[in-house]
Structure formats: C-alpha cells, structure tokens
Amino acid sequence: MIPVEARISVSRFRDAQIDMAHGAGGKASRRLVEGLFAPLLMGANAGPLADAAHININDAQIAITADSFVVHPLRFPGGSIGELAVNGTVNDLAVSGARAKFLLATFVIEAGLPTPILEAEVRAMADAASRAGVAFAGGDTKVVEHGKADGMYITTAGIGVPLPHLSLSPMSVRAGDQVILSGPVGDHGITILLARGDLDFEADLKSDTRSVLPLVEALAHAAGSGVRWMRDPTRGGVATSLNELARDCGMSVHLQEDRIPVRDSVRGACELLGLDPLHIANEGQFLAVVARESAGAALEALREIPGGEDSANIGEIREQPEAAVLGSTSFGGTRIIDMLVGDPLPRIC
Amino acid sequence: MIPVEARISVSRFRDAQIDMAHGAGGKASRRLVEGLFAPLLMGANAGPLADAAHININDAQIAITADSFVVHPLRFPGGSIGELAVNGTVNDLAVSGARAKFLLATFVIEAGLPTPILEAEVRAMADAASRAGVAFAGGDTKVVEHGKADGMYITTAGIGVPLPHLSLSPMSVRAGDQVILSGPVGDHGITILLARGDLDFEADLKSDTRSVLPLVEALAHAAGSGVRWMRDPTRGGVATSLNELARDCGMSVHLQEDRIPVRDSVRGACELLGLDPLHIANEGQFLAVVARESAGAALEALREIPGGEDSANIGEIREQPEAAVLGSTSFGGTRIIDMLVGDPLPRIC
Lengths: 349, 349
Known about the structure:
In chain A, strands 9-11-8-12-10-13-14 form a 7-stranded mixed β-sheet. A 5-stranded mixed β-sheet of chain A has the order 1-2-7-5-6, covered by helices on one side. Chain A has helices spanning 4-7, 27-42, 81-95, 115-132, 187-195, 213-223, 237-249, 264-273, 292-304, and strands at residues 52-57, 60-69, 75-76, 79-80, 98-110, 135-144, 152-162, 178-181, 227-231, 252-256, 287-290, 312-318, 324-328, 334-336. Residues 1-10 of chain A have low confidence and may be disordered. By secondary structure, the first copy, chain A, is of the alpha+beta class. In chain A, α3 runs parallel beside α4 (115-132) and α6 (213-223) crosses α9. The two termini of chain A are 39 Å apart. The first copy, chain A, has 9 helices and 14 strands. At the A-B interface, α2, β1, β2, β5 and α4 of A face α2, β1, β2, β5 and α4 of B.
C-alpha cells in the first residue's frame, strides 16, 4: 500500500481557512474541490468531484450522488429543507442521466429542536420522495448541542439507474449545439433572501424546488443521443454552470440574454442588490446542450410537460473564444459572463 | 398518489423536543426512529431504519448505508472524525454482510476553519479508504457561519457488494447459537471522554477505530451460513446491540460477563463514572451470533487475523426469558442488562 502522503505530495489549495465563499458553488468552491478534495480523495488523475457518479458494481451500471443541505431558514415560500434534500438529490441524478430509485437520509439535529419542526421536514421528505417516485432505504440521526446545527442539517444520498440512450459529457459538446433552459432563473435564491427578511422588498415569489426528472425524461425521449450535456444550475446559478461547461469543453457558450426567462420580481431584487440573475441559485431548473437538429423537438417536448411551458432556447455553442460565456442582447453589445465570485447569498441550499 | 398524511395518520413519537439522548443510540434513539422516521419515510409496514440496506437495482444486489459523524473533539488518540467517517460506513456494510466498494462524502464546515484542520481530515479519510480497499466516487461541501458546525460534520454514504454465503437476520438466530465478540469493549467511548479533558483521569488508551471487514470476511469464510447475525456495537455499546437482537428474535442472550474483554483503564473510568462498559461505544469491534457447531472454527479463524487475537465467545442464545439480555459472572449471580438510557457520553461518533 502506498501511503497517501507519497501519492499526493502537494495540495494545490492555498487559502488559509475555509470561508462562506467556499460553499457558494463558484470559483472558491471549485478551488477547494480541485485543489484539496479531488486530489486527496480521488487521486492525482481525478477530475472534479462530480455531483453524480456513474459506477459499475456487481455487473450493474448505477448512478450515485450525495449532498448536504444547510438552507436557512428551514422553511420558505414554496418549500423547505426536507423537500430540497429530496429534490436536490433526485435532480443531481436526473441531470447526470439517471432516474433516482433509492435515497438514504441522515440528520444532524440540534438539541432543543421542537419535534413538530422535525416532523414537518420528515413529512416534506416523504411527500417529495413520493412525487419523485423514489424510496427511502435507510438513514442515521445525530444530535448536537443547542446552537451547533442551526436547527438541523440533512444529508441525502441517492442511488439511481441510467436512463437509456443518453451519453452525457462536456466532451460530446460540438460547435452549433443549442443551449436549452427549463424555466425562469433565480426564483429559489431570491425567495430564500426574502424569507430571511433582511431585504426591504416584498414579492410574490416562491422557490422553484421540484423534481426535474419528468422534464429530463421528456427531453431524453425527444432528443435521445442528441442530448450532449445537462446540469442543474443550483449554487452559482446558470452563469457558473455554463462557465464550467465552457472550461470543460474548451469552447464558448453564446447566450441571447433576452431569451432567458427571469421574473420581474427576481430582476428587481437583483437590481436592488447589484446581483446578476444568472448567478442566483435555482432548485428546479436544468440546462441542456442539445444537437442543433434535435433542439426544436427537444423544446417542443419540454413545453408539453406541465412545468416545462417556459423552456427556452437561450443560446449556442461556438468554437471561439475558448472557454468563455458571452451574453448578447437584442439592443446589441456583448458581455463576458463570469462564474460566481464570493458568496452574496449564503446557505441557499 | 396518496398524500402522506392519509397513509400515515399518526406519528407515534411523543417526545416534545429532540434531546441529546435521541442521538445516543439507546432507547430514545429507537423511539425516534421507530416512532417518526421509519413510519413516515418507509411506510406503515417498515421495520426500523436499518444501518445498511440490501437492495436490488438494475438486476444487481447491492448494499447501501449512510452515517453522519459529529464526534467532538475532531481528533483523539487513535483516530479522528475523518477516519471514523470511513471506517464507520465500511463497518456498517461489513456487519450487514457486504464489502464496501464506493464511498460518497459530504462536509458541513464552519467558516473560519483553518485549512490544515480540514486537510488533515481529508487525508485521514483517504488513508482509511486505502486501508479498507474502498474508492471515493463523489461528494459535496457546504459552509455555515462560524460556530454553527463545531468545526465540521462529515457524512459518508457507502455502496457495497454482498459477501457470498451469508444470509443474516435476527430471524435466523436459534437457541444454542453462540455469541462472539471481536475484541475489548469501550475503548472508543472512553478515549473520547478522556480526550475532552473533562475527567481527572489519565490512561494509555486509544480509539479502536478500524475496518472490521478483514475479520468479518474471515468469520464468513470459516462459518459460512453458520453466521446468523452481526452488528457493530457503536452508540449504546454491546448491551444495546444485544438488546435489539433479543427483541428482534424474541429470545434471550446469556452473557458470561467474565469472558468479555475489557481493558483495566476502561473498567476504571467506568467505575469512576458509574457507567457499564457494555454501554460504551466501540468503533472497531463487532458482535456475531454463530451456530454452535460453527463457533469453534469461527473463533479460531478470527484469532488468526491480526487484530482478532482477543476475540471471545461471550455467551449464548436461549429460548427463555423472552427478549432479554442477562449477564452472569463466575462468582454466580445473574443480572438483567438493559439498553442504554440517556446519553452519558454525547457525540462520540
């Protein structure tokens, strides 16, 4: 056995301490994963720690994923931590091209939490699992002293089976491919912000948390192997997911910004705060890159599914410039859209 | 779709709030799991949420488990939270009769945590995984404000393959079966207690954290289908695990207490604190119930494995009394050994 110290002699993560930004899904998160977690846990040749991994075990192909949820507050318009914990894991599997079958759930609860608060979340999980067609197979509970878990943290692991006819990879993306988005962006992140009451702004807005599996299945059925890549733009938003794609495939993503659905209330809150809606987290949307010849059928199929009516073709892949995301509007002018930097909206999932 | 409220009309968990005891692995934990988590998440007919579940997916049998780790302090003689997070999940699979193949790891880290502390735990996880022969397949990181995660919490999910020739269930246990224990009890729990410095007592003691898979495999090889049941006696200790067995199989476990290996320092600390070593958590031991005719070969096989030298036959299963654990010493006299009540040593894993 080779000791880890010999295998991995240098960690490339140079930040002296962990800050909120390392959990925000943007540049700092990527530094932490690629500079510390991936090289130490997955070896020198590892890519980034994937949200869902497809593995072969006992001659079967399965997909696995795990996420911890620390959203604050625990409940918010349109959802709660329990619902998020189920949908988030179902969605990580869905955009990897898999249908969730089993979930494991672990709870870190702080002493003194009233039972009705816990019970509400367990019921929310059961309901979300029922809607997503997934079964709980086990779990674990730990209790820590009052104040040391902000109510509760929930971790879910998901085990799923690959959907047929899909082979997703940034390496499959080609110039001319179209970028499809399943619905309006930023609802979840801005809902959490408003639920905290820190902002003197009211809006009739709710989280978009839901299982995207029905939409993903409709897309896969309509476009089959024409689907190249999918991602759910949670922390860091659409801009961060597409920058990761651009970097991984070495091409550029050209967005027609006025085709990207954004609700007025989300746009208003973002203007007030100096944020870009494309950096705001979503919990019920996904991005897909689809071959040009499949894009029309894909969009049509998505729009026929309840909840997919606002799906839009928001742009395309081009050879140049390398590894960038660009946005144009119908007024003309093009801007570079970067990944999220810092953590303007902490603990949104 | 039937709403959960209709399916499960009554939660049987009556405690008004969550307390430390609900995370201790004893009676209160069992109430929480059986009265709230299991009926809501797994349906009215569910048994307790198992530590590891064996499921069929894509025509393959696999075993899955997940645990959160909140041990305090993060490092202690003989181990650390990272090592525990790997070994604990490998062991949950092992005693379910499965060999861990893949792990997922999620981190909840508090802002301000010095990077070297995180890096040390990630390295500890990599080392433990290497020793246990298991690979990391993915993960997730969340960051919460300073003070809200006591350094860090780690959750690991494990996916494994069933070991051949094993069919484990409390229902398979028969009167006359023998109870085998892999080594001395209480080292882990007392080590954590001493590491906190709350106790004016010093001892040359370290956590027993390790993968028990080599021992489990040796036992399975020697006794095959003669192995009826296994469990790693973590929170709640040997007494709690055996009480759960007694309840589940409806028979009694008769222990010869002077055959149970307990180090002098563990016994001393327990006497000082008024605790029973059989209630103290272990992180590198397991219990097995083995058919009488296989017990000799099983014990011999275990003792030949490095780290199995102290394995002992500590008692047997009898028909009467129903659902109880009894302890006898060579001085005569028999006592009832109950499950852990309360949480005398919180956050030991």
